[in-house]
Amino acid sequence: MSRLLLLLRHAKSDWHSGALNDHGRPLNERGRRDAPRVGAWIAGSGYLPDRVFCSDASRTSETLELVMGAPGWEEHHPEILHSHQLYMASTRTVLDVVEANWPDDDRLMVVGHNPTMDQLLLHYCPEARSNPSGKLMTTATVAVIETMNAENSRLLHLIRPADL
Predict the structure, then answer these.
(1) 94, HSE (Cβ side, Cα atoms, 13 Å)
(2) For 3-163, CATH number?
(3) Residue 146 in contact with residue 156, Cβ under 8 Å?
(4) Of 15, 43, 110, 119, whose CB count within 10 A is highest?
(5) Beta strand extents in the chain (DSSP E only)
(6) CA 111 to chain centroid
């Protein structure tokens, strides 16, 4: 049985926000614009997740809130787990969390940070290609992956805000 995995990198953050640390850094204006656009694409494409694992950093939580506030999400209420374990986690850590908590019939979305999001995408889809700047999972990018397991996966979509 194939499963659907959405990888979402947080939207653009504000490096000059005055946040006391990296964990507390919020989104900037562009990030607050891009996240709902990506959320509308997810809903409009029929890829609403059943379960969401989200880093507990401010920028990932804010991204998820804006994505879920987009049109098409009004009646959709996925199970959400905010976890400090996913903040700046290694690829192996995220894979362990995903595999231990992903029922066969669920659509799962992971909201996280680079370089881990790039590495997760390449783990499932080594054929994924970067954009002309050389980046794969730019801010607010969503990857939609159909997967049986890491050895049998295919990239259905790689959508960056610039594509919308």
Answers:
(1) 30
(2) 3.40.50.1240
(3) yes
(4) 110
(5) 3-9, 51-55, 79-83, 107-112, 142-149, 152-159
(6) 4
